[in-house]
Amino acid sequence: MGEIAYKIAVRGRAGIRDVAEAAGVSVATVSRALNKPDSVTPVLRARVTDAARRLGYLGNGAARALASRRSGAMGALVPTLDNPIFAACIDAFQQRLDAHGISLLVASAGYDAAAETRGLRTLLQRGVDGILLVGAAHEPETWALLPPDLPAVVTWMHRAEGCALPCIGFDNAAAAARITRHLLALGHRRIGMIAGLARGNDRAAARIDGVRAALAEAGLTLAPPLLAERAYSVAEGSAAMAALLALPDPPTAVVCGNDHLAFGALVAARRAGLAVPADLSVTGFDDLDFLAHGDPPLTTVHVPAAEMGRRAADHLAALAAGKEPPPPAELEAPVVLRGTTAPPARRRATPRRARA
């Protein structure tokens, strides 16, 4: 690596030939591994990407952008676009960027760590002027790719421990605690949770922490049988709710980690012959429009997706232009009370009056 490092130092940046030499492959193989990763074996792909990461190689698009200092485009790296809440954020992000005269490139990872790293590499190869990230729980390979001088913001969180990037978002734990306290105030003591998968998802983990904290305030715990971690989908929410209802002592209320899980939970409750909220209370987390018009309409947490997108655009546009960005601020994520929560049935029951 000594000779390669010398060449890079002379030129000021790594080239594709440097990566090929470091990985012990041809230039064509490097190109295939980085641009069409499925066309090479996993072992070869790992060897090439590791060499590229170590050398700081991004690709010709990024090199051109670095030479001109501006590409006129921002990148957004999101877990998925198969969810209206992320689509709402990206739509607002794009509209505000357009007002700044900036275009948008999006990479969607499908909640897959390797795909996320590839997506970020692609955005950097296109020479974007800044990056929007969702959350701060990313693989070391992803963080290693991110140039330290590239403007970037973390959304969906108001702070991220150990992350130096500005955060534009809300307190997931506090929001989950608020909606749990609402259920506690109604009289629920047997409360379950259908959460998102916490591994690699700091937002899902924070929501679990928030529910646990609120229950602890009331002297309660989130016992393992009452916590189900599932992928964010209606089907997974339905399956998790069916399992909770099959417990010997099922919950009287269930907090869901997002609205898709909550919708699935409502489907399972109806299939089980339960009336919501008469027999069971259910809450969501997102405030998706179609569930506000359900029967009954969903009690949930409003996620300020569009506002996060707009503020992220303003922040990145200012940084890219060499201006002072507006300071990051914690956004509100209020509980939206609708029709899926009520006191537990045993508390609402009115004792029969004794006959005279």
From TrEMBL:
Residues 330-344 have a biased composition (Low complexity). Keywords: DNA-binding, Transcription, Transcription regulation. Signal peptide: none annotated. Residues 14-68 form the HTH lacI-type domain. Residues 345-356 have a biased composition (Basic residues). SMART domains: HTH_LACI. The keyword Transcription applies. The keyword Cell wall biogenesis/degradation does not apply. Pfam families: LacI, Peripla_BP_3. GO terms for molecular function: DNA-binding transcription factor activity; transcription cis-regulatory region binding. Transmembrane segments: none annotated. This is LacI family transcriptional regulator. It comes from Falsiroseomonas bella. The lineage of its organism: Bacteria, Pseudomonadati, Pseudomonadota, Alphaproteobacteria, Acetobacterales.
